[in-house]
Design goal:
Number of domains: 2
Distance between the termini: 61 Å
Helix content: 25-40%
Shape: elongated
Structural class: alpha+beta
Strand content: 25-35%
C-alpha cells in the first residue's frame, strides 16, 4: 500500500524483440462510516464530519443525517409511549423518591 492508500498489482510481458506490454491494476482503499460521522461535528451545510486520529475523514450528507434523526425521533417517541403504557398498567417500578444531601 502506498501513501495514498492504493494497492498496485502489475504484470509485464516482454516479447521476442524485447518490447514490453505492461498491465497495472490500482486499487484504492476508502472507508466512510456514517455512524462515526454522526459522532463528529455538524458543518454549516448540514453535513457531519468526524476525523480520526490517523486523519481518516468520515462524513454523512445533510439528507442522510436528517433521515437518521427523523427515524431516531420516531423510534424514541414510540418507546416513550410504550413506557407510558407500561407505567399506567403498573408494570414498571415506580421511581424511588430521593433527596440529595451533602456529605459532611
Amino acid at each position: 500500500m502506498d501513501d495514498d492508500k492504493r494497492y498496485n498489482l502489475g504484470a509485464t510481458w516482454i516479447d521476442n524483440e524485447g518490447l514490453t506490454d505492461s498491465h497495472n491494476l490500482e486499487l484504492r482503499y476508502i472507508r466512510n462510516s456514517e455512524r462515526l460521522a454522526l459522532q463528529g461535528q455538524p458543518q454549516p451545510d448540514g453535513t457531519w464530519i468526524y476525523i480520526e486520529a490517523n486523519g481518516t475523514t468520515h462524513s454523512i450528507t445533510a439528507e442522510r443525517a436528517k433521515a437518521f434523526m427523523d427515524k431516531t425521533h420516531e423510534q424514541a417517541t414510540m418507546m416513550c409511549q410504550m413506557l407510558d403504557r407500561l407505567r399506567e398498567a403498573g408494570m414498571l417500578d415506580a421511581p424511588i423518591p430521593v433527596e440529595a444531601a451533602a456529605v459532611t
